């Protein structure tokens, strides 16, 4: 099919296109060996190209050219092997165009195919250091690519068998294409000689392989799926924050790449789609800089969440399934449909919705003026919600929260807390298999998100957001008070100093840690709140020190003074103490410290090659900083007791400043999703992918929140 549609000269988008208003091209090159990342957008499409090439002394990698597109969360992965060398030894890189000097140019071939959508994408020059074979092309959804690339090596015959190889339009070239299950869309990857190199050779067989000589080839990757309206950096930021564009070109370009009229995307390239938790945490942390009003970033993000609610039970969608992957999942069920769907397995995501609605619709002028138009909007994204108003959908979520929080409000037992759903091993942000250590009852959800969600429902009810729910105007706060005051103790772990020293020394051996044990820093009981209750092997509490304290700091103004002071004391201690006693290292706060678990399996399950192990997540640093700020700012407002306790208040301020020193020292890492470390005379940042098949996203939405979260000075 590709061969029959002539590759007429690609229309290069020049710097400005009058017809489209502001159509400037934005580019970003981000190097994180063995990954070279190139991000490109113009007004027609946006693309992220990643070239993976082995680096000497590095981990074994699969040489790969990957193109990821936000629209339809789609992409192409082309895996290469050297014709003669050892598997994995092929070096490849992009060459700059001798004409433009750029590595990539956008392509717009105009309307094509049965759907008449523009065929768009990118073109560039790829160089092979030695003769190369393209052994495996995967074309369609980024999910399909991840199922293969993230250790699973899963390939779907229905998808792979539809990949076809044909000679190129230009002699010496070749094209690979695949028609999607929607019978409308096609993805193409074409290669042509660029200069004096061997012609691309199609190697027949049941596998679709191409042979390239040593040298440089032109590649063009295109697809004709409907494109989404991207928000330019100017459009994604509010008018007061436009200066950020010149001050932080990388982060604002990245934010724009992830921001579209109808949704914001969690990260690139792996999570180039809607995620509820990521969207709402990002809006909350960046609300002061994002564009407001109809068509702005905040409303687009909140609308995306509401559109995807399960209206029957009010559950907020965790991850959407769209594009070719949606069609494929439908096919598995015998349904010939492209209808999108949602994953509803998370138990934390619901609570963010009333919080983010309160934050925008009650606390900003722009939001306040938009309440009725917004709430009366009729949903259209999911077939099952079509015609239902945003008000009804948001109310369904509030109903669910009120209903499920009622039992604990009347009787404070572990059983009445919120647990992961039956049959699911994950349910909140630590959603890897070892993230919660098998725990069923997560700390962040129960001690922070439930009460904060209830407080928000109370305020929204008093502002008449809900129909026929006058009772919530007081009831939600009554519930909230119980959840706020009575949950923390269930998670508390107190370890006497002597025992703590033994555990840390033992951990240093178990983990083979080259860093000092720092046990001289243990001067009293070690106190923290465990990650979850009901862990593996009948453990009542998963004894991992962690950064999830940031949820309570950021989302609540607790009023039990004894409890608040004690909580802030342990937060500050754990931030200030060096790992493995506390959470602090030169590369940031580790989201988990398993040193007090007391067994080899704790050391193994939360190591530096685990997604939620002894690693640093940027957004946790942002929320911790914003959370400490919220509590310290109360000293100028409702003055909780800790404000008058000089020793404690100063300790909290030093924890805040220490955290900011770590944030400032790691600016180079901050916009990424997660990073790991090696120890060599101190902790040094290492890309997470150096230790794991899971590549971290080079740019993650909620890691861009440092555009808005800044160090506050003047605390005394
Ligand atoms: C392409 O150009 C950039 C910026 O000028 C330069 O840093 C890079 O090394 C060039 N790439 C190659 C392969 O020459
Ligand atoms: C690759 O070839 C296509 C088709 O001839 C052309 O439009 C495009 O500009 C070329 N790309 C580069 C980077 O030279
Ligand atoms: C929506 O919730 C209802 C009630 O819990 C459930 O039966 C249904 O399967 C859910 N829908 C989806 C698509 O998960
Ligand atoms: C560590 O992971 C293994 C395998 O999932 C599990 O059996 C074990 O109980 C875990 N240990 C802890 C302390 O969570
Ligand atoms: C405050 O919290 C502490 C510690 O959890 C508890 O002992 C105390 O009874 C609480 N005070 C009130 C007034 O609820």
TrEMBL record:
InterPro entries in the record: 6-hairpin_glycosidase_sf (IPR008928)
Q: Which organism is it from?
A: Periconia macrospinosa
- At the top level, the lineage of the source is Eukaryota
Leader sequence segment? 1-18
Name this protein carries in UniProt: Glycogen debranching enzyme
GO BP annotations of the record are:
carbohydrate metabolic process
Q: Which UniProt keywords are listed?
A: Signal
Q: What is the lineage of its organism?
A: Eukaryota, Fungi, Dikarya, Ascomycota, Pezizomycotina
